[in-house]
Specification:
Blueprint: E1 5-6, E2 9-12, E3 18-21, H1 27-41, H2 45-49, E4 56-67, E5 75-86, E6 91-97, E7 106-109, E8 116-118, E9 121-128, E10 131-138, E11 141-148, H3 152-162
Parallel strand pairs: 1-9
Antiparallel strand pairs: 2-7, 3-4, 4-5, 5-6, 6-11, 8-9, 9-10, 10-11
Length: 164
């Protein structure tokens, strides 16, 4: 059974992050980035995107970068983000991070939260207007999924595919 926790309030915050877009890399740069992605997440890029249904068309792939502790490097990837669009105009943003929860520039206020279970994995699903926000961890990867204009059934199909 899917439990959708109704969000009472969303509060925004400002974070010191930068974005690295990977859609226009040379072949060599792409190979290096994909190796870094696999090292950071424990899953290959191809294995991850193969879980996503053909109903979702890739719009963008990028990282959310945070300040580095290494003086030689200004920012390092924290989250890797996949953005998809559906034929019906729906959108899905899937952020993954193995170190901790993916970053988000807002906080959710919701009392009396109830978890859902997809393929034996506990997930937290929030609903706000036409948005679903999902948080969970699976196979040492932390996920933060945000959708717009997607039905609950479509969300369940997406989560089921990711959690196979």
């Amino acid at each position: 059974m899917i439990n959708v926790n109704e969000v009472e309030n969303i509060m925004t915050t400002d974070m010191d992050v930068q974005f690295s877009h990977y859609d226009r890399l040379s072949e060599i740069e792409r190979e290096v980035m994909l190796k870094q992605f696999e090292t950071a997440t424990g899953i290959s890029y191809d294995d991850f995107i193969s879980k996503i249904s053909d109903a979702y068309v890739s719009k963008s792939f990028y990282s959310v970068d945070i300040p580095s502790n290494d003086a030689r490097i200004e920012y390092v990837p924290h989250d890797y983000v996949f953005e998809y669009q559906t034929e019906n105009g729906g959108e899905a943003r899937i952020a993954i991070c193995s170190a901790e929860e993916p970053l988000r520039d807002y906080f959710i206020k919701c009392d009396d939260k109830e978890q859902s279970e997809i393929n034996g994995i506990s997930v937290m699903i929030y609903g706000y207007q036409d948005i679903f926000i999902v948080e969970f961890s699976h196979e040492n990867i932390n996920y933060d999924i945000e959708t717009n204009n997607i039905t609950l059934e479509e969300l369940e199909e997406l989560l089921t595919a990711i959690l196979e």
